[in-house]
Amino acid sequence: MDHVWNIVFVTAFLFSIVIFYLLLFKNIRLRQLKSKHITQLPLGTLGWPFIGETIEFVSCAYSDRPERFMDKRRGMYGKVFKSHIFGSPTIVSTDADVNKFILQSDAKVFVPSYPKSLTELMGKSSILLINGSLQRRVHGLIGAFLKSQQLKAQITRDMQKYVQESMANWREDQPVYIQDETKNIAFQVLVKALISLDPGEEMEFLRKHFQEFISGLMSLPINFPGTKLYQSLQAKKKMVKLVQRTIETRRKNGISKVPKDVVDVLLSDASEQLTDDLIADNMIDMMIPGEDSVPILITLAIKYLSECPAALQQLTEENVKLKKLKDELGEPLCWSDYLSLLPFTQTVITETLRMGNIITGIMRKAKKDVEIKGYSIPKGWCVLLYLRSVHLDDKNYDLPYQFNPWRWQDKDMNGCNFTPFGGGQRLCPGLDLARLEASIFLHHFVTQFRWYAEEDSIVNFPTVRMKRRMPIFVMRRVEA
Asked: Where heme is bound, by residue (predicted)?
């Protein structure tokens, strides 16, 4: 028995030493951090050395209520608190006013901050990472083109075409996986808008390697053969080569004075800053919304409508009425019809953006010491703007977990309590197109089908998606 007690004693002693040094390290680090900001740092805890509070954060992120991590600390420390996640001391903000200030700050105050694997995959020239005049230039050029009537008309034609082709193949005796169908459609529409590529071998080549590329966005930052990050980088190189061939052909044949896609827009810029490598890299990065944002927006809208018969009935009646009117006039629907003549459809999309939180949060890093609303953010610290908590705050929205598109019929969606597309200089330039594509899909879907949705659940981490890809069984509507 003595040797057993010796083992217990030695184990307890070693454990005590480890705990002592962990606490000592934590206290030293806290004193270092507080020495300059002792009275100004937001309340909170930095958690364990090295790992901080990352484990609890990720654990909550995988649950059906990922905001519980924030709610617990917000109750103890307030809407802005300090933490330590993903290897960095971090100020977490669930305060709409603080979020707005940071989003509208320029690159001299805050710059984007992303996991190392993502920054390696995107590259230094990505529009997500570049700052200053170059970022404003690229963002401005792309934003202006994405808002142009010319592109909206093209997107409308392409979206209608690909939606109809997809729906024509749906069978009533087999499940339709909405998440897969919308990803396929949105990817084709976006690639056409970026580089004017039609469905075919090159499109399939891009789609295949794009799947390999995005699979490494949240991988371990280890880059050698066999790792996920290495495979993703290799996939991106292959896609970049394809886009570079397109760029070389355009330069050889002469750049169009009337741009037909985003490549034309960037090639027409006289600035020497926009190199062919920068353009090609950004075309790949801009394909990500075709994989995530737009398809998930549409998929979640169908999920919420499936669970809210009253909203589905009103949306269907609105769209059937518009379709009959257009059929009687012998006119196809144009982009302005979808965005202005379907007001309830727009409230459904808005409520889906609020509840779904496709962009859960935004990361920034302070370039200098900053004070906001009495909170101090030290230079070098990360800031997590947790948009989901703002959108699901019962102080901002009555019954926030209830799908209620009618709440938007008399509510301003331009306030700082609603920021599904970010804000400031980095506001998503494709926000109007996302609404347009969702409107087109919903219109054709509800005017052609009734459906039954199987049970499915939302996964919120590392990206928002449906666990079973949203399976539904459809029944074609009979024309009256």
From this structure: 428
Nearest to 142 by CA among 43, 268, 18: 268
CA-based nearest residue to 95, from 105, 81, 110, 109? 81
334 is in an annotated binding site: no
Predicted confidence (pLDDT) per residue in 229-241, tens digit: 999 999 999 999 9
* CA end-to-end distance (rounded Å), the chain: 88
pLDDT digits (tens, 9 = 90+) for 423-468: 888 888 889 999 999 999 999 999 999 999 999 999 998 889 999 9
pLDDT digits (tens, 9 = 90+) for 391-423: 999 999 999 999 999 999 988 777 889 999 998
- 166 closest CA partner among 188, 185, 192, 146: 185
**In the Cβ-directed half-sphere of 34, how many Cα atoms lie within 13 Å?**
14
Quick check: 68 and 49 in contact, CB under 8 A? Answer: no
Query: Which helix (H) or strand (E) covers residue 108, if one does?
Result: none
Predicted pLDDT at 8: 30
For residue 332, cis peptide bond before it (omega within 30 degrees of 0): no
CA angle (296 as vertex; 119, 203 as ends), nearest 5: 70
DSSP calls for 192-243: HHHH-PPSSHHHHHHHHHHHHHHTTTTS-S--STTSHHHHHHHHHHHHHHHH
Report pLDDT for 267: 92
pTM of the model: 0.90
